[in-house]
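Bench notes, afternoon.
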Amino acid sequence: MSARMEDVALLLATSVLSCWQNAYFLQMVVKMRRKYNIKHPFVTGNTELETVYRANQNLQDYYPIFLVTMWTAGLFTSSAAAAFIGLMYIVARYKYFKGYMGTDNKRVPGYFLAKRLMFSLSALSAVGLLNFALWWYCRVSLLDYLNLVAKAASALLLFV
């Protein structure tokens, strides 16, 4: 099982975009540090800096999980689906980050959207890994079976 460049191009593009987003969030922290003249390693002293720093830190906590689940889902199921969910996750992270700057309830929509998307990537990863394990040990393809059921169900729906 080897991946070709065209198989992972969407995953790579999404990963690079998420890196640029992380750089943007980091720049926001640097900007606040300069604005209020707060030197490293301190992160307290101004509410605006603390808010931006905390929002960035919250997003960094989930970043490795996002990358691993997106790549696992992409390599073991569909790279297009995983990259699309990854792009939606990037949008949700931005919404969360911007919402964090406002009142408490403004961050909630971005948080819940990101949480649902992370669950989707995790589920897709689990299905892909299960399919790989079934194929490796039993020579049974769960994804082929699901495709067959979907085709049969769609054909049956034509007669209803």
